[in-house]
Amino acid sequence: MVAKLREHGVEWVVLAGFMRLLTKVMLAGFKNRIVNIHPSLLPAFPGVDAQKQAFDYGVKVAGCTVHLVDEGCDTGPILVQRAVPVLDADDVASLRARILEQEHAVLVDVLQAISEGKLVLVSGEDGRVRARLGAG
């Protein structure tokens, strides 16, 4: 897969609705160049059905996170988060719909910033990579 993507000039991989962990080969082939969108304010509620997890927990603010993909499940460096209030009239479906609307908007914003060279990666003293979107 990595060879085929490179053959076609792929520089970045974007996961949106991809519900599988990637192989080490794929992660190494596009290190710090795989972007994912997740429907929670990570690190809260990683994995499947994050909106229901948040709703069931009773949070007053939910949201979405765009992050780089690493070996873990929704554990990569966070690029951007967008909050969505949980309304008194909400059920899981209405909360999911409002989060999805923000996911669509924030993912486009992040991809635009990446295309403009505004992604900055910094290695921390603990060895973890931290990411931010700044001026290009």
Describe this structure in words.
This protein is α+β, with helices and mostly antiparallel strands. It has one domain: Formyl transferase, N-terminal domain (Rossmann fold, 3-Layer(aba) Sandwich), CATH 3.40.50. It contains 4 helices and 6 strands; from the N terminus they run αβαβαββαββ. It has helices at about 1-5, 25-30, 50-55, 90-115, and strands at about 15, 35-40, 60-70, 80-85, 120-125, 130-135. The strands form 2 sheets. It has a 4-stranded mixed beta sheet. A two-stranded antiparallel sheet has the order 5-6. Strand 1, helix 2 and strand 2 form a beta-alpha-beta unit. The chain is globular, with a radius of gyration of 16 Å.
Q: Numbering strands along the chain, what is their spatial order in the largest sheet?
A: 1-2-3-4
Per CATH, the architecture is: 3-Layer(aba) Sandwich
Quickly give the structural class.
Answer: alpha+beta
Q: From the 3D structure, determine the CATH topology.
A: Rossmann fold
List the uncertain runs: none
Biggest sheet overview: 4 strands, mixed
Keywords summarizing the entry:
136 residues, globular, four-stranded mixed beta sheet, single chain, 32% helix, Rossmann fold, two-stranded antiparallel sheet, 6 strands, alpha+beta
